[in-house]
TrEMBL record:
Stretches that traverse the bilayer: none
Name of this chain's protein: Phosphoenolpyruvate-protein phosphotransferase
Function: General (non sugar-specific) component of the phosphoenolpyruvate-dependent sugar phosphotransferase system (sugar PTS). This major carbohydrate active-transport system catalyzes the phosphorylation of incoming sugar substrates concomitantly with their translocation across the cell membrane. Enzyme I transfers the phosphoryl group from phosphoenolpyruvate (PEP) to the phosphoryl carrier protein (HPr).
Presence of the UniProt keyword Membrane in the record: no
Native source organism of the sequence: Kitasatospora aureofaciens (Streptomyces aureofaciens)
Reaction it catalyzes: L-histidyl-[protein] + phosphoenolpyruvate = N(pros)-phospho-L-histidyl-[protein] + pyruvate
Length: 314
């Protein structure tokens, strides 16, 4: 009885009918590590590694990186840690990676693309992650940001495997990758949807502009359609597919995402109890019904209103 009562408030994420949904934390800076590790989470769904590279004249070397990764893996011993390789870009400027003379940096050589210009950067990072992973019981997965075409995912996965890293995946944050996730799945072991960038690129709306918040609303049915497409492809190949963008932090939207086929949610530690409770109160069939309502809506506000109203009927 006590276990039943607590089921909605702690432990692994599950729907009311027992369908598992992994609840994971996002981690982006060393000062967040203790709080993230203390959270009731199955691990880290998005370990942003940019902090290691910011405010410096050149990239950190292998030993320095390995030491930082080791600390994180030790804090998550026995749990999963999904490490995202360096994602330099318009919103994460790094002078030694990015070229200063791009007119549209959000559309430029960013994310995994910077590995083409400077292959050694990714090589060193993968080597450091692999070295730290060897000394740890954490299940270390690696994923690449800003993958657009299957070849990029395949090359990244091959490089990760060459370093002995068994799980290599791609972020789905460019519409082209969502549309062709079935092809990406041939080389990727898993996916993680970055709804912040996926919204930016789907709506041609700069994610840093508050004026465009309505277009960037993660309830936008077109965004959900892209998530649904990617989730269907992932399921077809038996690949897990998480969401690690802001959308995953909204409990009602999280139910919709699960209804679309998302298998894990990664968010800030404070968001996890609300997500866990929402999942525990709804069956998978109910999540699918909510997802159907959201997809049918004409705009984000209507999608949200329809879903909230159906939830409150229960
Ligand atoms: C995203 O784009 O949704 C994401 C999770 O990555 P970031 O916010 O670091 O670009
Ligand atoms: Mg992103």
């Amino acid at each position: 009885r006590r276990r039943e009562l607590l089921a909605g408030f702690q432990g692994p994420g599950r729907t009311a009918d027992g369908h598992p949904v992994s609840l994971l934390v996002n981690l982006g800076a060393p000062h967040e590590l203790a709080g993230a590790a203390a959270a009731d989470a199955e691990g880290v769904g998005l370990f942003r590694t940019e902090f290691l590279f910011l405010d410096r004249a050149e990239a950190p070397g292998l030993a320095e990186q390995a030491a930082a990764y080791r600390k994180t893996f030790a804090a998550f011993a026995g749990r999963r840690v999904v490490v995202r390789t360096l994602d330099a870009g318009a919103d994460k400027p790094l002078p030694f990676v990015l070229s200063a003379d791009e007119q549209n940096p959000a559309l430029g050589v960013r994310g995994l693309r910077s590995a083409v210009r400077d292959p050694q950067l990714l090589e060193t990072q993968l080597a450091a992650i692999a070295e730290a992973a060897r000394d740890s019981t954490a299940q270390v997965w690696v994923m690449a940001p800003m993958v657009s075409v299957p070849r990029e995912a395949a090359e990244f996965a091959a490089r990760a495997r060459a370093h002995g890293l068994p799980m290599a995946g791609a972020m789905i944050e460019v519409p082209a990758a969502a549309l062709r996730a079935d092809r990406l799945a041939e080389s990727c072991d898993f996916f993680s949807v970055g709804t912040n960038d996926l919204a930016q690129y789907a709506f041609a709306a700069d994610r840093t502009l508050g004026d465009l918040a309505e277009l960037l609303d993660p309830w936008q049915p077109a965004l959900l359609e892209l998530v649904a497409t990617a989730a269907r492809s992932a399921a077809g190949h038996g690949r897990p597919i998480g969401v690690c963008g802001e959308a995953a932090a909204d409990p009602a939207l999280a139910l919709v995402l699960v209804g679309l086929g998302i298998t894990s949610l990664s968010a800030a530690p404070v968001s996890l109890p609300g997500l866990r409770a929402a999942l525990a109160a709804h069956t998978l069939a109910q999540c699918r019904e909510l997802a159907g309502l959201a997809l049918l809506a004409d705009d984000a506000a209507t999608a949200r209103a329809e879903v909230m109203s159906r939830m409150s009927e229960r």
